[in-house]
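The following block was generated as part of the benchmark described in Methods. Ligand: copper (II) ion.
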Amino acid sequence: MAGKYHLLAVVALGAGATALGAAVAERMTAADQRGEAVIKDVDGKNVGTLRIEEQDDRTRITVTSQGLPPGYHGFHIHAKGVCDPKSKDPATGSPFFSAGPHFDLDAHSHPEHSGDLPPLLVNGDGTGSATVTTDRFRLAQLFDHGSGAIIIHAAPDNQANVPKRYAPSGPDAETLKTGDSGARIACGVITKHKTGRG
Ligand SMILES: [Cu+2]
């Protein structure tokens, strides 16, 4: 990768294209960084890791987990990089209230938040893994926002897909906030790291 960028930089300088050179420099900076999180449950047990990287015009998110209850789990980036298991949601009693609402660059509802991700499937042996790409945010925007936290929920995420026959007036405010994913069972603060390939 480094070789490719160096070649691009030489071409840009050779053509005297200052703007292109600056764009390449900016891209090198972004490619130099990644986000990482160690995901812990309420007892502080390590239940997974998360990696966030830039990949062309997308952001790639990779998760591996272990020691979690089998089934689908709501899986989102939340706005605040604070994972305090003793911080309880006054409305529901859920821990990790400190991580705030779903990370969002605008004023979207669920499941249109910038940090909304496909649910995590945990296998019968408690392990899960997934790689997902999203164009809803770039790594720099996440860090500008204050880094955030990855949260794994107890229940599946209904993505606010509530058919009219169940709710004639559509999903309620709670569903449009969280997708009814239930309590927060694990949390990982996303921190900035150098990729070391620049
Ligand atoms: Cu969430």
